[in-house]
UniProtKB/TrEMBL annotation:
InterPro entries per the UniProt record, alphabetical: F-box_LRR-repeat, Leu-rich_rpt, Leu-rich_rpt_Cys-con_subtyp, LRR_dom_sf
The protein, known as: F-box domain-containing protein
Pfam families cross-referenced by the UniProt entry: LRR_6
UniProt xrefs under SUPFAM superfamilies: RNI-like (SSF52047)
GO cellular component terms listed in the entry, alphabetical order: cytoplasm
Amino acid sequence: MANINGNAGLAWRGTDKGPAERSALNVGASTGLPAWLLLPEHVWFRIFWWASAEGNDLAWLSQTAALVCTQWNYLVRKVVYPRLVRLNLTSIEHQWKRCRLRLRASEENAEVIQETDKHIAGFLERLFRDCSCARCLVATDCYRLVRDSVVQHIHVYPPRLVELHFSNCALLSDVGVGFMLQRIAAHQAGEQTWIHTLTFFAEKLTSRAAAEIARRCPFLQHLELQYARLDDESLRELGKLRFLRQLKVRGSEAVTDAGITYLAHLEFLDIALCPQITDRALFTLAHSVHLRRLLLAHQRYNVWCTGKWTESGLSALREAGVDLHFIDV
């Protein structure tokens, strides 16, 4: 730290100083603080912003920068965090996995696991409390941070959240989604949230999660429930969301033609890898005045898992002006 202070002082002495620089040097000289610690807060925000990959590396912000000194801890928590709009928990998950290698043997104890879950929940609560202006929360491959046993202990969320993205959070079930939406709603509209975008990629989610989403998120516009265990009743509940325009239910094996009838107001629908879909559902969608894009799976390799529709149903959609897209299995 002494070298950094000295270099900073030499750099300042070798330049033409304006009033702000001279004031910072005078204050630094009188307080004994290095001049670089007296930079304006907006300058520090830009420094931390670029050093943390535009705010995406929360692990670096929460650990490396915050542990340098008290002043940096203050700058991160009171200057940087309140200005972050997008929170990405992926880097924190990766850091936890690296630290967890040393604790794998002790985590076999149930009491240790429970205490660890509470510790993680407390850390996330402090992070969410500091990031009061965050509007988007992203968690990709967060098996440890986003699980029921952790989510149930989190009571504080950023009050302005409108987007939630949970991809490959395999240990999140209906219970965790219920806890999360209930507590986000408590910080927003009481019983309901202001969320307009919600994405999940979790095989443990069922029709209970769909019903909770329909109840808590009335303003939802974009919803992804890929490879969840949904059925026609789930689609009936989701069909009540009058603002919903885009829906992905890829990989839902229990969804049938009857459930598609509740989705006539959508503009985009993903029913790839829904094996019980037939031409009847495609004819229903062809009569929808709102549908613009439909995503299906190619039947060239496995007809059973992609659906039972035929070229007749596809022709009806093309005649109706629907833009068809296909994924390869």
